[in-house]
Amino acid sequence: MTAALPPYRRDGMQAHPPRDHAAYRSTALRHPKQPLLPLPHSMTELTQPMLGTGAIGELDHDLTQQHPGEPIGERIIVTGRVLDGNRRPVRDTLVEIWQANAAGRYIQKEDQHPAPLDPHFTGVGRCLTDNDGRYRFVTIKPGAYPWKNHLNAWRPAHIHFSLFGTAFVTRLITQMYFPGDPLFPYDPIMQSVREESDRQRMVARFDMETTEPEWALGYQWDIVLRGPETTPPDPDEDH
Amino acid sequence: MAAVDQPRPIRAQAEGIVMQELTPSQTVGPFFGFALPFPEGPIVAPAGELHIVGTVYDGASQPVPDALIEIWQPDATGTFPTEPRPDGFRGWGRCGTDADGHFGFQTIKPGPAEPGSAPHIGVVVHARGILHHLVTRIYFPDENAANAVDPVLSRVSGERQATLIARPDGDVLRFDIHLQGDHETVFFDV
Ligand SMILES: [Fe+3]
Question: Complex ipTM, two decimals?
Fold first, then answer.
């Protein structure tokens, strides 16, 4: 039997959007109306599958190298650290990303936006974080795209991120946005997050240090997942 | 559950660590089918003879064709896998819903993960229109005695309990998920 694991912190959870957000029309019939039942954290919630080990391809982190030719668009580097709520790095955790191409079109057949597909761009990446909790992707800056939520609705450019973290309760699917996008105030998905300070944590920072000469612009974006209420001393950390 | 219920000091607070500044959740969107599902995703246990199937419904009782279901469970002894196993049991599965809102997993029946808890499978529901994923559990219809004393299930009112218990359907177990409406599934605040 595994030793008792600490539950995860419940503070800060109001950063997540309410599930009933009328401006995002699809939420109307897809949010529960009954109150959620509080669930004490048991083994099911406190454990987590090890995903990705041995299954990450050499080019999975580089979305510009997955086809014989180069994709069209602005080559970018997106990197950052996955941290828990106690500012500890989350190591060896699977990070999955997916996105539209530079023209704002997904390869998925349901996407009918009349913008060109790029035969050299799939828009799917995966990597594991390193010992510092760091991930790194090379990709193409995605374009904004229209959607049918309301008249003249456009999504700001974004990259979808999926993370697992250290427990079933740290699961997170989110979106990374680009700084200065004029579409932010018009986007009900981004605006579903109540506080501006919380919304800002979804916006990457342009970073000259990450930018590589003659090659690609660099963006830094840290992701913070829930942390446990108590943390064992970290052997890799100076105290 | 004893370990979970007893009060414990919150060291993060004791150490003066500030409130968690979490990265907010956002919807998985409508276009994830080319990225997240993978062929082995629904195979939690390659030799498993338990098939769990279901349909995701919205508040108008319409099937949801763009949902992604993920499950997490221990093995038959109640142990969660911490590394790849020779028999391929992974404990975890992922399945996107099809055009009719259907999903399905091939697995084994889990054992109880803790003394006093009934066998169950953790479930996460992502979809277009879900800004922050939903969490529920699958319990088993042949576990009446254990279900009756399970510390989570026993706190759910009688008629809503049924939404958490899979039901036999021919050779498979069926676990439909109703995001809203008269048959709304019980979802948990984790
Ligand atoms: Fe998108």
Answer: 0.95
Listed by number, the residues of chain A in 34-73 with a beta carbon closer than 8 Å to a beta carbon of chain B are 34-45, 47-51, 53-54
Average confidence (pLDDT) over A180-192: 98
The answer to whether residue A155 is catalytic is yes
Query: What average pLDDT is seen over chain A?
Result: 94
Helix (H/G/I), strand (E/B), else coil: A225: strand
Inter-chain residue contact A30 with B130, CB threshold 8 Å: yes
B12 close to A9: Cβ distance less than 8 angstroms: yes
SS3 of residue A22 by DSSP: coil
How many structural domains is chain A composed of? 1
> Which run of H or of E encompasses A220?
strand A217-220
Give the percent of chain A with pLDDT over 90: 90
**Whole-number Cα distances in Å, B22 to B25, B84, B108, B129:** 9, 30, 35, 21
Domains detected in chain B:
64-178 (2.60.130.10)
Size of interface A-B (CB pairs under 8 A): 243
Q: How large a percentage of chain A has pLDDT more than 70?
A: 95
The percent of residues in chain B predicted with pLDDT above 90, rounded, is 87
Known catalytic membership, residue A239: no
Q: Which two tokens stand for residue B141?
A: 């219809």
Which residues, in sequence order, are CB contacts of B169 under 8 Å at separation 6+?
B53
Question: At residue B111, what are phi and psi to the nearest 5 degrees?
Answer: -90, 170
Instruction: Kindly report, residue by residue over B28-63, the tens digit of the pLDDT.
Output: 999 999 999 999 999 999 999 999 999 999 999 999
pLDDT in tens, A103-119: 999 999 999 999 999 99
Amino acid at A77: I
Question: In the structure encoding, which two tokens stand for residue A167, read together?
Answer: 């427990």
Strands A153-155 and A145-147: antiparallel
| A5/A28 Cα distance (integer angstroms) | 37
- Quick check: is A145 catalytic? yes
CB atoms under 10 Å from CB of B105, counted, come to 28
Give the least confident one: A20-34, A78-92, B1-15, B141-155: B1-15
Q: Provide the residues around ligand 1 (an ion) whose CB is within 5 A.
A: B 29
Question: Which stretches of A37-119 are assigned E, i.e. beta strand?
Answer: 37-38, 75-84, 94-98
Name the residue range of residue A102's domain. Answer: 47-224
- Residue B88 region by backbone torsions, left for phi larger than 0, else alpha for psi between -120 and 50, else beta: left
- pLDDT of amino acid B135: 98
Which domain CATH number covers A202?
Answer: 2.60.130.10
